Amino acid sequence: MKKGLVMLLVVAILFWWWFYQPSATKKVKHTAPPNVVSFETTEPQVKKPEIQKKPARSKQSESSSEIATTIHISDKTIADSVLSYLDVYRMTRQFESCQNIIYRLMEDENFDPVVSFKSRTQHLQALYPDLPTPPQISAIKRHASQCEQLLNAVQLLDLPDLDTSNGKTYAPMYQLKLRLKQYLLLLKPKTQKEQAIEEVLNLIELWQVYYEQVLTVSKGEEESHKAEITVLKEQLSLLRKEQLEISRQYHENPDSVERDSLGEILKEIEKLEKQVIELKRVDPEIREQAIEAFEPVNDLLFAQLKSRDPDVFYEAQKTLELNKQIYRDFGHFPYKDHGGKKFKVPFVEYVSPGDVIKDIFGIDDNETFGLVINYATQLYHCELGADCGPEGNWTPFYCHLGYDNLVEAACQHDLPTFYRDYFLNQNQWQDVQMVLDIIRELYAN
Amino acid sequence: MRIKWLLLLILAALIVGLLVNQKNQNKVLENNESTAIKTPVSSTTAHDLDNAIEHNLATDPIAKKTKQKPTDVQLILEEIETRMFSNDPYVEIYSLQSSMSLCKDADELDSLFTFYQNYTHPKQQQSIDVFKEKCQQQQSLYPNLISQDIKQPFKTIKPESRLGLLLEKMHKKFNRLTELERNELGTELLIEGIKAQNSTVLISSSFTYRYNRPMMSQLTHVLNSQDLNYVGQISQLAIAKLACQFQHGMACEPTSELMLLICAQQPNSCGLTFNQWYQQNTLPGMKNDVEIMLAHFQDNIH
């Protein structure tokens, strides 16, 4: 009898060990259709540190059925060489989407991502009283956990020091971001994909140098009328102080400020700024030379749009659109700053990839064009093999990271499904497909 | 002697009666004004509006208590004798002023074109020149209306229609309304603007309506789209298309304020009518949705 019991116990232990032992390198698989791949690609997997579960912080627990986990890196002496070039590149991309959370985590030890979400989306509460829904809450918490894990991983790396010789100071989060980018530059790419990414990132650095040179020349030099410009700038400085004071007074007590006083000051500022611009000088020949030097580098970066690699396409597209955001206006950024009113000769000759497509359709209006181009460009990015699952490059924006148009279905579907079945109507989908056809023609042929 | 006392008594009674009557009239006036102005938009009933309209029609449009010289207003009323927009002088004046607002202020016209950059494209300059010619024609037709301060006529002329009352509310109380009240006012203006076939009110509404999130979220079912930005833009295009049907399409001409605004942002669109711009700048799916939204507005207003 005793023996039987002991045998039973051993079998039970074996049974438990066989089925419930956690895997060190768990792959997340999506059941999405082809071209919607998991975030962990087919590249060789790095052995990840064991994840230990800790009791949830009381503020994070919204429902008793969910236990929020804080991700803990168990091995503090993680060897940097364990991480590949691609791993670190992924970290830099993830850092972008985690930026706000990392900032809060570094500043506030009591940071609660769900409370933060509710505060950020207060303006939507009246319209959507159920916000955030349970799937959205899960996604918010998961994303925050992933960002915290990333922060911990980055802080363990032997990052290069930041060059402070320019006298600039940065917030801790931003310092970390820059140091991580510097760290990537020190790594050697090994695989073809990694080499392609490195190539486009190097090209982007060069492109930015040449682009800045055109802008510098286009601004106009002040030396020819230095004294007059200095006087005007002093006057402008005083007017701007006055403007701030009036704005402050108005904010405190609108009745204390004369209705047109702010308008008058702004008109005066505009007039003086115009005078400053008129006194500046641009040498058209030098400007032309700068543009001629820029064009071949620009052509090279444009050629990268034809890459079949989604990350190479992403980097080139984002840079060429002069777009610093990560979710909005991916296909066409309508607010490009070519210098506008600040430059003597704004760089209006510049044409971005989105502008090219806009011209193909004969559309002038940025807003109507914006209704289709961004969806189409994102879908093209998905076709190249980008991660377009519920936690991929785009859908989190509609699930919880955006400021409006937050739709629960985005938390549960891949991007093409979400757009086609839950977000856009049939007419929109047809228009988006039309634009997508043009994009394929431009880049995929 | 008796007759004298009787006469004195009658006279006293008459004086008292007059004083009491005057007091009551003032009370009625105050009550009606507070109904029209103080009542939040959301509880403004048709009955309240009708009362206010009736009162304004009954009282002299040139109120004696105002500081405005009656002769200036009289001149404006003469200029607008042939109505383009409405029998309500308040609405007529508001609509005309709005459609000519850029004619009044040359600086504002310049600012429109130099908002984004310091230079003006040749196509834009051409449009500005044609617009200025149009302003001169308008000035010859409405010299007093254009030269007056924009708020001055509204100090004396009272609205005589529902649309007029809503415009007055927007004019006087907008900054003091809550966001909900503003959204509701915007919706009411759109509805009344369509009923009154007023292109100026519609064009103005199309801009504010577009960012009216509560209304956009209610219109998602019309287009079967959850994309609020899209619903907003399609609504704006539909309302503008509707506006083109009224006042012989004046709101959609190349020299209309709407097209001038577009010209300021897109030099290649200078010189186009709204319908030409619309054909060029929308895709087939968008056009289908605009027609759906247009039909929705037309069906639901009437």
Radius of gyration of chain A: 27 Å
Query: What is the β-strand count of chain B?
Result: 0
Average pLDDT of chain B: 79
Percent of residues of chain B in helical segments?
A: 55-70%
Radius of gyration of chain B, rounded?
24 Å
Quaternary structure: heterodimer
Beta-strand residue fraction of chain B: under 5%
What's the total number of strands of chain A? 0
Order of helices and strands of chain A: HHHHHHHHHHHHHHHHH
Which structural class matches the secondary elements of chain B? mainly alpha
Low confidence ranges of chain A: 19-79
Using CB atoms under 8 Å apart, which protein chain pair has the greatest interface? A-B, 37 and 35 residues
Structural class of chain A: mainly alpha
Question: What form of chain A results from the Cα inertia axes?
Answer: globular
Structural notes for this entry:
- The complex is a heterodimer of chains A (445) and B (302).
- Chain A is mainly alpha-helical and 445 residues long.
- Chain A has a domain at 47-82 and 85-186.
- Helix content of chain A is 58%, strand content 0%.
- Chain A is built from 17 helices and no strands.
- Chain A has helices spanning 2-20, 85-107, 113-120, 122-125, 134-156, 172-186, 192-219, 226-252, 261-279, 284-303, 310-320, 353-361, 366-370, 373-383, 395-401, 415-423, 426-443.
- In chain A, helix 7 packs antiparallel against helix 10 and helix 8 (226-252) packs antiparallel against helix 9 (261-279).
- Residues 19-79 of chain A have low confidence and may be disordered.
- Chain B has 302 residues and is mainly α.
- Chain B has a domain at 101-141 and 177-301.
- Chain B is built from 16 helices and no strands.
- In chain B, helix 1 packs across helix 2, helix 11 runs antiparallel to helix 13 and helix 13 crosses helix 16 (284-301).
- The radius of gyration of chain B is 24 Å and the shape is globular.
- Classes of the chains: A mainly alpha (445), B mainly alpha (302).
- The A-B interface holds A 126-127, 254, 267, 270, 274, 277, 340-341, 346, 348, 361-369, 371-372, 404-405, 407, 422-431, 434-435 and B 107, 111, 114, 116-118, 175, 180, 213-214, 217, 223-230, 233, 262, 265-266, 268-269, 277, 280-286, 288-289.
